Amino acid sequence: MNDSFHSVRIMDNFYQSSSFFPMPLTLIGTLDEEGKTTSFGAYSLVFPYYIAGKESYAMLLECRNSSNTAKGILRHKRCTINFLPYSKKNFASHVKLGFPGDTPAEKMREFDFHTEDSLSSADGDGLYPKIISEALQVFECTWWDSLDGAQDDVVKEEYEPPYHDFNGITSKFGAHFILKVDKILMKDEYYDYIVNGVGKKRFMPLATNWGYRDSSTFWCSDFTRPDGVGIPDRQVDVSSVRYAVDRLDDQSVSFTDDALQMIVKVPRPFLKLVLQGCVNWAHENNVTKITAKEMQEINDKRAKEKKERK
Ligand SMILES: Cc1cc2nc3c(=O)[nH]c(=O)nc-3n(C[C@H](O)[C@H](O)[C@H](O)COP(=O)(O)O)c2cc1C
Question: For the residues of 197-256, what is the DSSP string, one character each?
């Protein structure tokens, strides 16, 4: 028997009707029917979906299937996810763009920001929604319509079953879109932070939408200075690393203890992957024994690749 918590009734829109759920605040840009004008809608149910190990990185967007955004993605496949700095004024602009039923033309007549071409509009057919000039960060995305067999979904007045499970039209009123991340754009200052190191005063001042809204009010929290907590400095004994080495399928490369000592901080779930990477490097470089010297070379190569990726 637990009397320190209440069990809350779980109902439709439970993330805001039955709980306080922190979410991003974004404006998503899509093209109108003619593919000429970009309009923007306010969206918070947009999260990273494929973050590694797939052919593309992807986001997931949950939205009403009658929205301009859903129609724009179904028709033209592309969208831009714009993150603006938090201010009460900007939040009010998001709420204005969150009012259902306005056509793209009506929305853009009273749009509070400026727009410019996306970077991706220079590629392919150029049919890409615009981005918001005042945004600090923008994800340019293409709908991955082949997932869940959603490539034939089209805009309709009413959506009848059957529905998809997780991509395309997923219910009478709902749509889910898995969006390949084509580009991530960032303003200079924040690009510097993410490449050269963040800090208490070196962070992107984004809003957090705390989910809750009632019939009269949307709520959103201001950005405050972030706190940093160091990653736990946990290292395993070198014998645990040796144990993992002995269990590799490929035993043609040996490791000295001082080499293994250099990777004792690698968390256990990633150890096999790291060791396999070392073995692959050894084959590529005709090495059969990895000492501290070779391990240093591998580490330097990884650090260089990481820097280049940024
Ligand atoms: C802060 C905020 C966040 C919102 N998040 C979502 C969301 O994640 N999914 C959704 O379907 N609607 C969401 N809405 C409601 C949409 O903005 C609303 O349906 C709007 O009409 C969409 O614009 P569009 O038709 O131009 O796409 C949100 C509204 C606000 C104000």
Answer: --BTTBS--B-BB---B-SS-B--BPP-PPP--PPP-----HHHHHHHHHT-S--SSEE-
State pLDDT tens for residues 125-174: 888 999 999 999 999 999 999 999 999 999 999 999 999 999 999 999 99
Per-residue pLDDT at 67: 97
Shortest-distance Cα residue to atom 11 of ligand 1: 63
Residue nearest to atom 21 of ligand 1 (CA): 100
Domains within the chain, CATH numbers bracketed: 14-196 (2.30.110.10), 238-309 (1.10.8)
For ligand 1, mutation pick of 14, 28, 37, 44 (most atoms within 8 Å of CB):
44
211: Cβ below 6 Å to ligand 1?
A: no
- pTM, two decimals, is 0.87
Report the interhelical angle of 292-309 vs 268-284 (nearest 10°): 100
Of ligand 1's listed atoms, the one at least distance from the Cα of 98 is 17
d(CA 38, CA 42): 14
67 close to ligand 1 (CB < 6 Angstrom)? yes
* Cβ atoms within 10 Å, residue 174: 16
| SS3 sequence of 286-297 | CCCEECHHHHHH
Structure tokens at 73: 């993605």
